[in-house]
UniProtKB/TrEMBL annotation:
PROSITE patterns the record matches: ARGINASE_2
Cited InterPro entries: Ureohydrolase (IPR006035), Ureohydrolase_dom_sf (IPR023696)
Protein name: Arginase family protein
Top-level taxon of the source organism: Bacteria
Lineage, top ranks: Bacteria, Bacillati, Bacillota, Clostridia, Lachnospirales
Similarity comment: family membership: Belongs to the arginase family.
Gene3D superfamilies xref list: Ureohydrolase domain
Length: 227
């Protein structure tokens, strides 16, 4: 899809329609790699295909529920808010790993359907109370932005959190143990504009994590599918 104009960070209505057209043959099931965080809004286009009540489990250092500067455009920082507010099948969004400041800034209307678990909170009780709000009866779609990880696990084009890959896999195991998982997507690659030496090192780290996550997820996702 690299030939589609109007997609980098902000996605125009025309570009969205073209992406939808090219995704017609692909459902939300499976594992999808979406490039860097500038294109995380593609998650919205995948979950639009889900026609049953579901929850979105979002691993992200940012809420992606901000008001876009250009209101008529979907952005990589606004797509989750649009989805939460407009998608009739999305009953709950579980946001894991955001900066606590971004959680405090969420409007009250978002908080009603969003469960926000920040690993940087001072008290574990706050996180535990939020986790108790999760409706385990809903099937889940998982979206992972690798900017939730520390720099040992990923090198992204956005500021990052401090989660280790091992912690991410432990939390993912909890989702698979308690909910039927529909599909997964992963974004958070580094910028193509980096100096070559930095780009090669960052790409090596990302590729290692991508391979490990694919192996980890496919072993659970496909083994749980009916034959």
């Amino acid at each position: 899809m690299s030939d589609i104009r109007g997609t980098d960070m902000y996605c125009s209505p025309e570009a969205q329609e073209e992406i939808r057209r090219r995704l017609q043959g692909f459902g939300p099931e499976g594992i999808h790699f979406l490039d860097n965080g500038n294109y995380h809004y593609v998650t919205k286009l995948f979950v639009e295909k889900i026609r049953i009540p579901f929850s979105l489990v979002l691993f992200d250092h940012h809420s992606d529920m901000q008001q876009p500067l250009i209101h008529e455009l979907t952005s990589c920082g606004s797509w989750a808010g649009e989805l939460l507010w407009k998608n009739p099948y999305l009953r709950q969004m579980i946001l894991i790993g955001p900066d606590p400041k971004t959680v405090r800034e969420l409007p009250d209307r978002m908080r009603k359907k969003a469960v926000c678990v920040s690993l940087q909170e001072a008290g574990e009780q706050t996180a535990e109370n939020e986790i108790k709000r999760i409706d385990m009866s809903l099937p889940a779609y998982i979206s992972i932005d690798k900017d939730v990880l520390d720099r040992y696990g990923a090198r992204t084009n956005w500021n990052q959190g401090g989660m280790s890959v091992r912690t991410l896999e432990r939390l993912l195991s909890g989702v698979f143990a308690n909910q039927k998982v529909i599909g997964v997507d992963i974004c958070g690659e580094c910028s193509l504009q980096e100096p070559l030496r930095e780009f090669l090192e960052d790409s090596r780290i990302n590729q290692t994590t991508n391979r490990n996550l694919y192996s980890f997820l496919s072993g659970r996702l496909y083994s749980s599918q009916p034959s």
